[in-house]
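Last lecture ended with a question: if I hand you only a sequence, what can you say about the shape of the protein? Today we answer it with a concrete record. The protein is DNA mismatch repair protein MutS. Below, first the input exactly as provided, then the predicted structure, then a couple of comments.
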Amino acid sequence: MRNIHPKTLQDLEFPMVLTQIAARCNTELGKEDALSIQPFRNKEELMSVLGQTSEYLASFSNDNRIPNHGFDHINSELGLLKIDNSTLEISGFRKIGDIYKTVAIHQKFFKKFKEYYPLLFDKVNALELHPEIPDAIDDVIDKFGEIKDSASDELCYIRSQINTVRSKINQSFSAALGRYQSSDFLDEIRESVMENRRVLAVKAMHRKKVKGTVMGTSKTGSIVYIVPEATLSYTRELNNLEFEEKEEIQRILNKLTDEIRPYLELLQEYQKYLSDTDITAAKAKYANEMNGLLPEINEERELFLRDAYHPLLYLSNKRKNEKTWPQTIKLHQENRIIVISGPNAGGKSITLKTIGLLQVMLQSGILIPVHERSSVCFFDKILTDIGDNQSIENHLSTYSYRLKNMNHFLRKCNDKTLFLIDEFGTGSDPELGGALAEAFLEVFYEREAYGVITTHYANLKALADELPHATNANMLFNSKTLEPTFQLVLGEAGSSFTFEVAQKNGIPYSLINKAKKKIERGKVRFDATIAKLQKERSKMVETGSKLKEEETKAREENERLEQLNSKIKSKLESYQEMYDHNQRMIQLGNKLNTAAEKYFIDKKKRPLISEMLRIVETENSKRKKTTAKKAKAKQQEKKQVAQELEQKIKKVRVEKKIKKKEEIQAEKNKPRPVFKIGDRVRLKDGKAVGTIDTLEKGKAVVNYGMFTTNVSVDQLDLVESKK
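The predicted structure:
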């Protein structure tokens, strides 16, 4: 695979995609690197990057979330490490330690979940970890960014001496303070601090009586600030020790820098890994927002984009809550070139740009918004001629520029090329330009290049119909409303609807009729035939949608009848049970009546009691069987109800998650209001409404009547704008 010309990337608005990916990076280095993404030359490397992005995207929908990869770049530190005898600062060592620890966390995580993320594991596992790097830093620098006492024996001794001298300074100062306080030489404040030193606040009238060095006076001159003589010698000793401490710290940092210097290349690899991970994460976030995925990659030179969206248009419409129309297009060896025709503003150029941009994105390691059953191949070259390319610098007209571009196409075009040309052949005399465009198209066809062009020229539509491996296509147009439907249909050319659109826009019919007479009858008939075919196509689409609606209604009616049937069946079963129960009661009553009548005749109790017991035992045995059956049925019913309840709970949870995600996304996409003085506002999640009195640097003073409060404008919701 070869690189793709920058002009092609510009035509397809690829830099805008990179800008959106960079905005989703967490680190400054990641943002810089994202803006310089280029199509890959090496296919194996490209497949690896696409696979890594796809794995990262999958992490958003499972519980194994990838650890944070944020870091502060160490470019200046790496530059210093290349210079002999240079010394890094403490902050630089801390950044190096943090980068190492982040890489170590990633390596540990991906080792644990390598079955889920095999490509990401391979990438981080290729890095060689050296624990001596963070160990050396942690031995010298503590978590607060201070040099540890244990960094060297000499530093430990110096700091212990410093603490001793400071203790002596405090003791001598306290003694002087007590002595001069008792003599009433000091002001009420007694002491102060000047130039990081404790000083006595001596009354000006007693300044001669206090021995020491004068450090200054108060504004009024009533107080003189003096360092007691007893503390001066200790202060000089402290200054010397602090100087020695500074020198020892410098020596320790020099030594630590020399220990880290051999790992320069390894540190560069660590930083490169985290920067690449930041870009991979940003690509995954971008794909997640536009439903991007990794389609099947084939070797058969087949490009099948099903339900493909233009990513920039899709995200723009998503923010506006507007619908974006997907396109489906297929290029293969039996159908290499597609000629799209139809009216202006019908979506031809967007379809063309969608194909080109998605191909460039994929070849740059970015997932694309298509259906999962799409299948794509790679091209060595992607050539584009899109838009009005007048060159003011070279004094070239649009047509001259396009001819130069076509000459470039002729030099580069082969069977591994995808070409995309918008408004092919325009810019010159229609007949002559159309003839030249036809000749160009025949050359591209003979070289077995793949391509998509848009045109209004009838001869190009006719050529596409004649060539066995080329196809006409059109953007559907509603002939009644003369509004575009933004749907691409393969297999037939499209009418420009020139006269129909003119008539809709109020051009007199007599003038349109006059224009029709001025052109060849064959052309009008050809365009009219195409228009008729498109009308038929529109009717078929409408009929199809009506049939789908009727099918949906029939399915709903069928479900309703099934539910009704189920209810009737349930009622019949309950009636049957009631009937059986009543029959049993009648039989039992007859038996009791027979026994009572027999007793009435012969007055014998024993046969009566015996008969009664027999009847009761018979009924109880029936009850036991029935109770066992009911208990089993009830248990089964409970189990079924529990399963249904569990499924409903799961469904509700999923719906809640989706709803919450949509609410959060809607809140993010919601435009921030511009506040003015006098606007009625309330705090987010608050009830009280106030009025903005002042606005300054993102802060607002809100007046609630009884009191005012100073808050950030980000925390406010607009209730009513000032009229």
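Comments.
1. The longest helix spans residues 521-602.
2. The two ends are 62 Å apart (CA to CA).
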